[in-house]
């Protein structure tokens, strides 16, 4: 009887996110790419092809395993697939890596196709009692999930006023207001982002950079498998920052409230982005 498992030629690498690669594959990639005293292209060359800046690459040099750190950051970007990684390695003339690791990579891809990597679903009991204040016979749906830290809650209140209580009539998911107490934070947040919200607004500030919850929410949204990523992340800056803008969001267009010359257009632009189909 023929095997039902897909062969290498049948695997669509572009449809498989980079997060499908396990620790063993990443460790072996590091053994090939971390050494810098060889004539072959190393991790820094791959990093440039991935779109990382000179300063970011210099920062990764300080890491004990720069390849591991590079993959961890890159896999959060839209379009970060196994296929793209293989293409970068081929462009860097590292077909030796592809040849040596092909079997392991294919095995990872097949396992992902059989059991996609997802955040575990909470017990089915939450579906009966609901997870948001207005859950009823059908789950409450939202135009956007708002990712914010507690120190920026006052701006979230302004966002509610401008986007929900006006003609825009948008429906925002604000964790402190909409989520019922007693639920598991991480799994409920994942369900809201992936299944209940069309978009995600990320309120960026210096305090955001120190928030574990914001870090999880942002990376989870960015690392959704390519086929499921129909939502758009919209970074918002509402006050001047002293620290660098997060690198994993640098490729997204920012809605900037700090510029007086464009402040009058801010809410219209944001509302239009959230209303787009």
Structural summary, described in words:
Residues 116-128 have low confidence and may be disordered. The chain starts with 22 loop residues before the first helix and ends with a helix. It is globular. It is α/β, with parallel strands linked by helices. It has helices at residues 23-33, 43-50, 54-60, 66-74, 82-91, 95-114, 125-129, 153-163, 175-178, 185-196, 212-222, 266-275; strands at 142-147, 172-173, 197-204, 233-237, 255-256. Helix 1 packs antiparallel against helix 6, helix 5 (82-91) runs antiparallel to helix 6 and helix 10 packs parallel to helix 11. A five-stranded parallel β-sheet has the order 2-1-3-4-5, with helices on both faces.
What structural class is derived from the secondary structure elements? alpha/beta
The value of Rg in angstroms is: 21 Å
* Form type: globular
Poorly predicted regions: 116-128
Keywords:
277 residues, five-stranded parallel sheet, 12 helices, 5 strands, 8% strand, alpha/beta, single chain, 43% helix
Quick recap:
This protein is α/β, with parallel strands linked by helices. It is built from twelve helices and five strands.
Topology:
Elements: H1 23-33, H2 43-50, H3 54-60, H4 66-74, H5 82-91, H6 95-114, H7 125-129, E1 142-147, H8 153-163, E2 172-173, H9 175-178, H10 185-196, E3 197-204, H11 212-222, E4 233-237, E5 255-256, H12 266-275
Parallel strand pairs: 1-2, 1-3, 3-4, 4-5
Helix pairs in contact: 1-4, 1-6, 2-4, 5-6, 10-11
